[in-house]
Amino acid sequence: MSDTRMEATRGRAPVQVVTMVVALVFVLVGVLGFIPGVTTDYDSLTFAGHHSDAELLGIFAVSVLHNIVHLLFGIVGFLMARTASGSVTFLIVGGVIYLVLWLYGVLIDLDSSANFVPVNDADNWLHLALAVGMIGLGAAFARSSRT
Question: Could you give the strand order of the β-sheet that contains 39-40, starting from the edge strand earlier in sequence?
């Protein structure tokens, strides 16, 4: 690795840097979910359940629980990014978790009490994209570290 590249990442493996970026995005999303204006219909924000009309950026259904989950997911990402293997694990396992969330969101009735997080169609598509992206990144970095 070149000196410039090493200095830019402060001795971290590329997978650790990618994981920290992913973790930062989750923390930012969690924080933004608590900001009126960024979250539309903020006054209807509930702790959990599908009755909240609050939407991050006017698109993604959110609740206090949903925002806390994003914050915690980001914190776990930062903790796992301390090592390259932890970073790969976070990306793959996190991707699998988002794949399960996508399946859950697709299979439940969005107007039922089963939608306690809550999720909507936009969330479902985002969860699928996150699953594919995170698993793909984790697998690519896992493979490159073995060669």
Answer: 39-40, 55-56, 60-61
